Amino acid sequence: MDKISVGDTGVTAFAPATIGNISCGFDLLGMAVNEPGDYVKVNLNYDRKINIIRIDGDNGKLPLDVDKNTAGIVVKSLKKHLQKGRGLDIILKKDLPICSGMGSSAASAVAALVAANQIYGNKLTKEELIPFALQAEAKVSGSVHGDNALPCLLGGIILITNYKPKLTYVSIPAPKKVWVTLVHPDFEISTAMARGLIPETLEMKKVIRQNACIAGFVAGCYSNNLELIKDGLKDYIAEPKRSKLIKSFPQMKMAVEKIGGFNLGISGSGPSVFSFTADKNVATKVGRTIQKFFYQNKISCQIYISRINKEGAKVVKADGVNVM
Amino acid sequence: MDKISVGDTGVTAFAPATIGNISCGFDLLGMAVNEPGDYVKVNLNYDRKINIIRIDGDNGKLPLDVDKNTAGIVVKSLKKHLQKGRGLDIILKKDLPICSGMGSSAASAVAALVAANQIYGNKLTKEELIPFALQAEAKVSGSVHGDNALPCLLGGIILITNYKPKLTYVSIPAPKKVWVTLVHPDFEISTAMARGLIPETLEMKKVIRQNACIAGFVAGCYSNNLELIKDGLKDYIAEPKRSKLIKSFPQMKMAVEKIGGFNLGISGSGPSVFSFTADKNVATKVGRTIQKFFYQNKISCQIYISRINKEGAKVVKADGVNVM
Question: What is the per-residue pLDDT across B238-248, written as a single tens digit (0 to 9) for each?
């Protein structure tokens, strides 16, 4: 945060990476991890406009145009909704890689929303901020999927129970003993392309297996039963197709499960992969194992070991004072 | 139980009716209700054989042959397993209609197992009795589906999480406030025929909806959230096809939901239908509403209003002493 925080006033918020689908809940489940995440700093300015004045960490890939960047879109909508006169200058520090399957666009939007809401007097609850985040994602990606934005904002594990006629969701208790290994390999998969791989129908046997898995996973989270969770972490919908975009995925999966990883799954639409374990050392070993496979394929990667994030996006600095 | 209990020694067990699928969990969810149920009485005899000496309430439809009746099959297997010399005389009192979708064959098997296990010295736990019940069902129906036998034996709501390589399951907390209306119309649907109606594939949109429903239902049961439960009670797999076998089903469903029933679903493979409500009076009104539709179609029916049964099959009389 050095680049942002030195000598600053304004409000800085953090929004965590999220793992969409969690293997068993395609388009329905999502969860937040403690790290990495995006930081957004907002400062009141003296014109009436929203400006994105700088983006760090995106290698110039993201638009500074407020109408094309989720961070800009949400802040503009929020300003209008709250009928505020003064504009905001936004600095975005992207620790989340783009097109990584880690909820990067949702995190920018959510961090910007939380920071802007705070500087505008904290008028809205997190629940009230949800529609702004979803609208921004829809505007950028063309479709609304809350499995990143909701856990990013609220933390924990979120189950979306309906998309229509309106979005409904429930927070599922995060199992206490779980460690999450999240590995980001340095290549991109476009969400639209990954979505195009999903078959239009599914064999009934697999439908029933998938139903059993998501139901068992949810039961395992409520009862803190790691065996049920482990058993439920299976994906008959997206993984069979999308895993082909990740070299050595089947071998990687076998190796991870052999050393105690509950699973190897694709985070969101990939290419990041994740695994649950019950032990931090095993989580680290799982990360190294995945890394080894990527290296063999000449792909560099970043490993993140984290608990499930329970609080979601939050203000981390206000007027130069850390509030973490 | 008059016909059985007068002047008797022996052991009598009760096994409850069960609702397979519970709309959102095709082949995975099942639950027990307090009534109706089957009663099985066993008496030690002086030969080495298992005999079914009488069946009441089946209108002569069920076989007295111990190798063709689930009650006989399980008791014979149990006797062999326990290496018992003395045989048993079995009297079966069927309060559950046959081919009704209420787990009739499972209830006979389970009541017989629980009674026989008791008279043979209570050597096995309920969990240990499960394989006997499943084998008997498989022998009679040609396939193993635990969604009746498991809740019948154990009570409550059961989620089957795996069929292969071995059957695994978890008990889901029964929501406290729920009343169940179960209505049996006087016609039969063969399980095999109903199974033949299930399509071989499902559209992905419906797969995702079904996943959301079963996951939301399970979350609702754990958190005692009736809105989630209500929202989850939807069936995109079997109901669209099987409901065509039940005259006026769509109209009935609409009427039931209008007066406060959470849903109208098909119990197992039908033709019995069920609904959840949060109020006993509403549960009764729901029953009357369903009855009205069946009457209009010149079909008589029986209505059962019950809580979710939490204890499953049990011994109700031993050596002339009630143990209820």
Answer: 999 999 999 99
Of A77, A57, A58, which is closest to residue A66 (Cα–Cα)? A77
Whether the CB-CB separation of A18 and A32 falls below 8 Å is answered with yes
Q: Strands, DSSP E only, in chain A?
A: 11-20, 29-44, 50-56, 88-93, 157-162, 168-172, 179-185, 201-203, 265-266, 273-277, 301-307, 314-318, 321-322
CATH 3.40.50.970 fits B2-172+309-322, yes or no: no
Scan for tokens 């965590």, then name that residue: A16
B204 — contact with chain A (CB < 8 Å)?
yes
CB proximity B225 to A under 8 Å? yes
Q: Which CATH architecture has domain B179-307?
A: 2-Layer Sandwich (3.30)
In DSSP notation, B93-108 reads E--SPTTSSS-HHHHH
Closest CA to B132 of B189, B196, B62, B50: B50
The alpha-helical segments, DSSP class H, found in chain B are 2-5, 70-82, 104-119, 126-141, 146-154, 191-196, 204-223, 226-232, 239-242, 249-258, 280-296
Q: What is the pLDDT of residue B80?
A: 95
CA distance B47 to B49: 6
Q: Using an 8 Å Cβ cutoff, are B193 and B101 in contact?
A: no
Domain spans in chain A, listed from the N-terminal domain onward: 2-173+309-322, 179-307
Q: What is the CATH topology of the domain spanning A2-173+309-322?
A: Ribosomal Protein S5; domain 2 (3.30.230)
Looking from the CA of A200 toward its CB, the CA atoms found within 13 Å total 0
Q: How many helices (H) and strands (E) does chain B have?
A: 11, 13
Whether this model's ipTM surpasses 0.85 comes out as yes
> Across the interface, do B208 and A172 touch by the CB < 8 Å criterion?
no
A225 contact residues in B (CB cutoff 8 A): 170
Averaged confidence pLDDT in chain B: 93
B299 phi, psi to nearest 5 deg: -120, 125
Q: Does A241 touch chain B (CB under 8 A)?
A: no
Q: Which amino acid is at A17?
A: A
Q: What is the CA radius of gyration of chain B?
A: 19
Q: State the number of CA atoms in the 13 A half-sphere of A292 facing the CB.
A: 11
Best of A171, A204, A231 to substitute, by most chain B Cβ atoms within 10 angstroms, is A204
Single-letter residue type at B99: C
pLDDT of residue A190: 83
Q: What pLDDT is stored for residue B137 in this prediction?
A: 84
Q: B305 forms bridges with which residues in the sheet?
A: B181
Q: What is the pTM of this model?
A: 0.94
